[in-house]
Write a structure and sequence with these properties.
CATH architecture of the largest domain: Orthogonal Bundle
Number of domains: 2
Shape: globular
CATH class of the largest domain: Mainly Alpha
Largest sheet: none
Helix content: over 70%
Strand content: under 5%
Order of helices and strands: HHHHHHHHHHHHHH
Number of helices: 14
Radius of gyration: 24 Å
């Protein structure tokens, strides 16, 4: 009887703990999502009422429909900025995945002092603050004529390589080397072995790296601001153009542009988010 009572007590404690955690995480979710909801809410209100009534729903005299979106697109040349952002994000992510996955495979399979040092250099790059190198970087980028959408992709590859190599290397260690040996016995070259055998197995980590890198590059403001010429604007830079002199801001247009900036990356994240925990865990446990 005592043993049954002890089990019942443990179940009650477990259920109570689960309920408390559920309530806690629900509150945290609401706290994080509420600012996004406010941005969406205010994007349909007149800029005259956003500051005075930020928490009220649009109604009658405050509701302006899609005019904030239309004004914001016209004032910021949003479409051109969106094309630049899509181009930079897509090709940066593709090249980061391609280059770093091959690098991680080489580091993991080739056991020598140079490969070990290379791995630690990539890991060290993860902890170097961007502020330490941003002025030197902008000068070098200007000297090498990287101040354009194609050139900045090379810069993003350098900054995104550390985390990506770390995650890929951790996952590659969990892949049985017998798969690669069998492929080579069948006549595959190292390049064929990687793309036909290793890379398909890396799918969970590849999607995780793609999501993390895409969210960073799409939302990045400082690096494009420092590197790109004024002729090229990404979405975060274009949104800043709504800020006028003496601190004046067209809040209505800005809210609309923020919504348009958020939607693509949120859709991409939600469509791939089931792979994130799986990929991070696979890349970290073996690392």
């Amino acid at each position: 009887m005592a043993r049954r009572g002890g089990r019942s007590s443990d179940m009650d404690v477990s259920q109570t703990t689960g309920l408390i955690l559920t309530i806690l995480f629900t509150v945290l979710s609401v706290a994080f999502l509420y600012p996004i909801f406010l941005v969406l809410l205010n994007s349909f209100k007149s800029k005259l009422y956003i500051s005075d009534q930020p928490f009220s729903f649009p109604s009658g005299e405050t509701f302006v429909g899609m005019s904030n979106y239309v004004d914001g697109i016209a004032k910021t040349d949003f479409m051109s900025a969106a094309v630049n952002s899509v181009f930079i994000t897509v090709f940066s992510v593709i090249l980061i995945i391609l280059v770093t996955s091959m690098t991680a495979w080489w580091i993991t399979r080739v056991k020598c002092l140079f490969s070990t040092l290379t791995y630690f250099v990539f890991v060290f790059a993860m902890i170097v603050p961007f502020q330490m190198v941003m002025f030197t970087l902008s000068k070098v980028a200007d000297m090498l004529h990287l101040s354009n959408p194609v050139g900045i992709i090379l810069v993003y590859i350098g900054f995104g390589a550390g985390q990506a190599v770390f995650m890929f290397a951790g996952f590659v260690k969990s892949i049985p080397i017998s798969l690669e040996e069998a492929a080579m016995l069948d006549g595959c070259t190292p390049i064929q072995t990687f793309f036909l055998v290793v890379f398909p197995v890396l799918k969970p980590t590849t999607i995780t790296v793609a999501i993390l890198q895409a969210m960073w590059i799409w939302n990045d403001y400082l690096l494009p601001y420092l590197v790109l010429n004024s002729d090229y604007k990404t979405i975060p830079i274009a949104v800043q153009y709504l800020k006028g002199g003496y601190g004046s801001i067209d809040m209505g247009a800005m809210m609309g542009m923020l919504v348009l900036a958020i939607v693509p990356i949120v859709v991409f994240y939600l469509s791939c988010q089931k792979y994130i925990i799986r990929g991070v865990a696979a890349g970290a446990v073996k690392g």
